Write a sequence for this structure.
């Protein structure tokens, strides 16, 4: 087993316009690999755990950068860095849930180069999978983590169809909570998908974490005004306070009127391969005051249906506690 | 009033580190240099059956391949540079391929086919000790010392790998926190009567414990570059040490040490993993000779995990008996060490920590080091002592609580002083002032005030802890070498490595102090063998400050004696009539009558003999002899072996005090305050002392709460080969402001008063934090190091957590 760390020989395309990128992506299809900030990409490629014939570097496409106000909210270019999102006054003012989430991704250095598109579209975290083992997700026929002796402390509680890897993204639960829309383009045009539908679990597609298909590029994230200035709560619990993935995170948005919760979207991360909407909790808190007592009363609902592995049982109380905190903050 | 000791200065290599001008091993390039990359084992245990390199060798740009067949065989359980018959861990180097570019070399790796025969493997010592458990080597799981008859009938001490198994009941007992009766050990010592001690005790605490392996992750991986010229090997490596590499590396290259120039200007961390030459240096040096080209072998981050060695894990049991007055009367300690694929554990050092930190009236230690198919184990900052400190502190707190004693008062009763002892042999120490450190620290930290504060605030609870770190910190018998040039400048030749502690410079100040020379008129020679460097210790074990300030001091004293003799010869009278000062040697009764250092150096050259290094003492090491020979006739040479009388271990001791706020919802804690006081004799270089204290404190947080080895027992694969997976603490995980102080009482056995302190800084921090976490949770004992977020959440939720099984190398 060689231990690599230089880039493999591959073609490199550096388009300056999105149309060029779409043409290249269309032509190369499965043979091409889209790269934005590269913070997920380079690990895969340099480790030789995945490969592609050509790299399509999107970082030179200026039109994919930036945060724009629209008639119904904001649109964030997919190449906008996490630092830009964390520091953007408009997002901080109206959608602090997202700026809070973006501000705790990884480390300052990674946030300076990592993009929202990449953070949302990154692959799952499973050390077996990322080591290049031939597991279900890698096209094989077994899971190394879901065994009595598997080292699965960071793995999933829910929706574990053959694969128990968890989504590591901090921004993904936030965009689902904000009911964002993902803008996807290919050479034939544009389609939009709700954030909730953008992410796919292993039961639907075990080899991909999003609905993006070869030839398609995520160009923007649109956040509607529906949840602007709502009451937000984001919290990430990781072993380290910098440069670490969530053990569990929570992104919650509440519309509160007359002292009670009228509507909410509560989403947990790192508990399954996709952001998990806690709809039972959302339903239970409707009409309730946002108080510690409400939190206590509904916390158990968050973990209903959890299937605990050998080493990740702590995620159940942690998830429950984070739900409780989101309601009592 | 000192001139240099105890005062800040800027070590001469610092500007080069700021500008990037200084060269690390990877910065050394040479015309015609080729790049070697290593192919490592994909399996935890087996042997190489066949290697087919034909496709790789046919590639354009590939210039050669080295395998185990090109190097002398290393019998098990040695750590071969390249493995063949005994492949014992995932990531073990099998061969290296050299090519004109790194890319070609990496592509070539993928075209080499290695056929392995698999063997059984094991990643947990207790599993291997269990009836029917697999062994890391076909011959067994433990190195057992044997005494054999030598060829002429003289007894020689040998060792062999044997398969040691414990009865099932012994394994079960250890896991359940009871004495593993009938377990077999390979190390054992005892003093005093422990049964009587337990009988006299008012409180007896009995606990199991586990500490994980900790991989090394020095930011500079152990990249090497070598080339040969006129039969000499020029070898740029990454080491903690300088001269201490000479003999071992020359042996690896099968050359006379006189034909080795080891180059190591700066090192990006070692922490025990680079004390001496590591086996993989043999790959670069020998491949360069085979190819007759300069070769650089760059080690990747992942490979640094594999071959950089790791701290041994422990699975243990301890029984502590404490009298009503708080005095520890008896300790019974059992440690099963994870020895990895080779190397070993540090159980005896762990037991030594217990003796120094608590001075038990009686104690028994039993230990065994068990091989597993995980990375080789070696020294890592306070090996044995620091991980023991981390798990022991809360256990001792439990005893203090049961007695109703304040935890600092408990430690005061048991603190070591200058009449105290260390280790199973109860050897003396040079001096110790731990009660002074505890008192100073308690005031600095505000222990009593913090104890009186409310504990609970919403979901958060406060915890306050205290810990002690110790490491033997000094050695004797090395050589010093100084030279006064004809221009009067003092040249200090140092064989001390530059591992980032700047101790090469701090210890050089002892010579400047003795000679009373302004620092700007001193020049340190170091960093490559052909700078004429004396025999020096390896920069491990926190020893350098004690060891080499003494060696430089005696060399300076030799120079001073020669200055006086030269002055007497030139100006009349006897040497005793003269003294030094202001870079002159002058008559005590008439200071105007004297010689400048420059004049004296010129006279030394004219006089020859011992004065200019043409002759040298018989007792200096051959390495120093060669260094002196290289300087002959260039000035006044002061050279001597450290024969300063005295005995005992110079202890480096630190006490730490930690306050945390732990969130009961998330298991996360914030360090609110951390204060530390060192008992390390005179602080030689205050600025760097503080840096060492801070660095050790940071890593203590990693040791007790974040870092660990994780292996899958199903396939022997490691889960944390990268930096982010191994989780060293970040700046947001530690206390940003720390309170730092020293007792600063000189050690009587060092002319400048200093003892080392590097390693204990981590143990004090780790144990104080572990103590604070336990305190926050009403004295709960996790008995595991690290105690991670998930363990705390599980405890609070009433879940069982996996550390109860005493498994090491696991989550």
């Amino acid at each position: 087993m060689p231990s690599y760390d230089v880039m493999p020989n591959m073609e490199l395309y550096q388009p300056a316009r999105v149309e060029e990128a779409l043409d290249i992506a269309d032509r190369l299809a499965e043979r091409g690999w889209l790269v934005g900030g590269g913070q997920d990409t380079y690990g895969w490629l340099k480790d030789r755990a995945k490969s592609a014939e050509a790299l399509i570097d999107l970082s030179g496409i200026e039109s994919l950068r930036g945060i724009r106000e629209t008639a119904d909210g904001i649109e964030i270019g997919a190449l906008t860095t996490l630092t830009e999102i964390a520091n953007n006054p408009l997002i901080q003012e109206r959608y602090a849930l997202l700026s809070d989430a973006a501000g705790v991704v990884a480390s300052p250095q990674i946030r300076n180069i990592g993009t929202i598109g990449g953070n949302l579209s990154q692959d799952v975290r499973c050390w077996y999978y990322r080591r290049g083992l031939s597991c279900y997700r890698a096209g094989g026929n077994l899971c190394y983590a879901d065994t009595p002796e598997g080292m699965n402390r960071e793995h999933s509680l829910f929706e574990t169809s053959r694969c128990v890897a968890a989504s590591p993204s901090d921004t993904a639960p936030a965009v689902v909570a904000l009911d964002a829309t993902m803008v996807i383009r290919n050479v034939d045009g544009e389609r939009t998908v709700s954030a909730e539908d953008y992410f796919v679990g292993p039961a639907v597609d075990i080899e991909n974490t999003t609905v993006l298909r070869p030839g398609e590029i995520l160009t923007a994230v649109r956040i509607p005004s529906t949840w602007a200035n709502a009451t937000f709560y984001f919290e990430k619990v990781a072993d380290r306070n910098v440069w670490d993935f969530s053990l569990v995170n929570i992104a919650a948005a509440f519309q509160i009127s007359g002292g009670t919760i009228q509507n909410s979207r509560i989403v947990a991360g790192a508990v399954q391969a996709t952001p998990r909407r806690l709809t039972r909790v959302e339903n239970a808190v409707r009409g309730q005051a946002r108080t510690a007592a409400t939190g206590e009363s509904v916390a158990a609902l968050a973990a209903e249906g959890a299937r605990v592995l050998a080493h990740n049982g702590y995620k159940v109380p942690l998830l429950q506690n984070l739900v409780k905190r989101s309601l009592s903050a | 009033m000192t001139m240099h000791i105890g005062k800040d200065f800027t070590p001469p290599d610092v500007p080069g580190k700021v500008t990037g001008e200084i060269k690390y091993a990877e910065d050394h390039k040479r015309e015609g240099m080729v790049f070697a990359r290593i192919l490592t084992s994909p399996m935890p245990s087996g042997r190489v059956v066949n290697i087919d390199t034909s496709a790789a060798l046919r590639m354009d740009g590939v210039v050669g391949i080295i395998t185990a067949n090109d190097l002398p065989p290393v019998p098990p359980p040695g750590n071969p540079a390249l493995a063949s018959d005994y492949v014992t861990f995932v990531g073990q180097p099998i061969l290296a391929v050299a090519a004109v570019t790194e890319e070609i070399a990496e592509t070539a790796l993928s075209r080499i086919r290695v056929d392995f025969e698999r063997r059984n493997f094991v990643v947990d010592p207790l599993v291997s000790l269990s009836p029917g458990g697999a062994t890391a080597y076909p011959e067994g799981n433990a190195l057992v010392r044997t005494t054999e008859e030598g060829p002429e009938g003289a007894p020689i001490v040998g060792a062999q790998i044997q398969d040691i198994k414990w009865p099932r009941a012994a394994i079960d007992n250890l896991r359940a926190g009871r004495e593993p009766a009938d377990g077999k050990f390979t190390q054992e010592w005892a003093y005093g009567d422990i049964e009587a001690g337990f009988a006299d005790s008012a409180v007896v605490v009995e606990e199991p414990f586990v500490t994980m392996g900790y991989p090394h992750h020095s930011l500079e991986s152990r990249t090497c570059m070598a080339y040969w010229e006129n039969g000499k090997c020029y070898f740029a490596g990454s080491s903690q040490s300088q001269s201490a590499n000479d003999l071992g590396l020359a042996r690896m290259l099968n050359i006379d040490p006189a034909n080795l120039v080891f180059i190591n200007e700066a090192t990006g961390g070692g922490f025990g993993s680079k004390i001496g030459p590591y086996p993989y240096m043999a790959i670069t040096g020998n491949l360069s000779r085979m190819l007759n080209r300069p070769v650089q072998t760059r080690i990747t981050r992942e490979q640094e995990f594999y071959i950089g060695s790791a701290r041994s894990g422990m699975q243990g049991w301890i029984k502590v008996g404490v009298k009503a007055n708080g005095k520890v009367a008896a300790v019974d300690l059992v440690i099963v060490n994870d020895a990895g694929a080779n190397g070993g554990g540090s159980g005896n050092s762990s037991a030594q920590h217990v003796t120094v930190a608590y001075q038990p009236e009686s104690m028994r230690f039993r230990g065994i080091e068990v091989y597993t198919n995980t990375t080789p184990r070696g020294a890592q900052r306070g090996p044995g002592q620091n991980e023991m400190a981390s798990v022991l502190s809360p256990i001792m707190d439990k005893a203090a609580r049961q007695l109703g004693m304040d935890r600092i008062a408990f430690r005061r009763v048991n603190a070591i002083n200058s009449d105290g002892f260390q280790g199973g042999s109860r050897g003396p120490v040079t001096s110790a002032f731990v009660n002074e450190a505890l008192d100073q620290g308690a005031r600095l930290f505000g222990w009593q005030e913090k104890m009186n504060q409310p504990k609970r605030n919403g979901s958060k609870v406060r915890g306050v802890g205290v810990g002690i770190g110790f490491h033997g910190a000094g050695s004797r018998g090395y050589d010093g070498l100084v030279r006064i040039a004809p221009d009067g400048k003092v040249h200090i030749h140092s064989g001390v490595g530059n591992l980032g502690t700047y101790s090469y410079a701090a210890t050089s100040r002892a010579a400047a102090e003795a000679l009373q020379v302004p620092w700007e008129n001193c020049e340190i020679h170091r960093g490559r063998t052909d700078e004429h460097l004396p025999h020096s210790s390896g920069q491990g074990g926190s020893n350098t400050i004690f060891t080499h300030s003494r060696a430089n001091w005696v060399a300076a004293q030799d120079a001073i004696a020669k200055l006086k003799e030269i002055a007497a010869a030139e100006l009349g009278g006897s040497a005793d009539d003269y003294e030094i000062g202001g870079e002159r040697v002058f008559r005590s009764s008439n200071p105007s009558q004297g010689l400048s250092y420059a004049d004296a150096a010129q006279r030394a050259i004219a006089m020859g003999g011992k004065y200019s290094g043409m002759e040298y003492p018989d007792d200096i090491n051959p390495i120093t002899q060669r260094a002196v020979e290289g300087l002959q006739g260039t000035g006044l040479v002061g050279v001597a072996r450290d024969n300063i009388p005295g005995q005992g271990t110079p202890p480096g001791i630190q006490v730490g005090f930690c306050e945390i706020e732990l969130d009961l919802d998330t298991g996360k804690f914030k360090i609110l305050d951390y204060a530390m006081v060192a008992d390390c004799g005179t602080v030689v270089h205050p600025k760097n002392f503080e840096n060492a204290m801070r660095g050790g404190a940071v890593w203590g947080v990693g040791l007790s709460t974040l870092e660990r080895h994780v292996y899958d027992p199903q396939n022997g694969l490691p889960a944390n080969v990268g930096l982010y997976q191994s989780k060293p603490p970040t700046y947001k995980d530690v206390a940003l402001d720390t309170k730092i102080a020293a007792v600063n009482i000189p050690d009587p056995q060092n002319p400048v008063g200093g003892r080392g302190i590097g390693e204990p800084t981590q143990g004090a921090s780790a144990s104080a934090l572990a103590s604070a976490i336990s305190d926050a949770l009403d004295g709960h004992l996790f008995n595991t190091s690290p105690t991670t977020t998930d363990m705390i959440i599980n405890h609070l939720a009433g879940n069982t957590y996996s550390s109860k099984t005493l498994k090491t190398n696991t989550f």
Observations:
- Chain A has a mean pLDDT of 97.
- The longest strand of chain A covers residues 248-257.
- Chain A touches chain B at residues 1-9, 47-48, 107, 127-128, 131, 144, 147, 149-151, 153, 235, 237-244, 247, 310-314, 316-318, 321-322, 324-325 (CB under 8 Å).
- The CA atoms of residues 311 and 328 of chain A lie 29 Å apart.
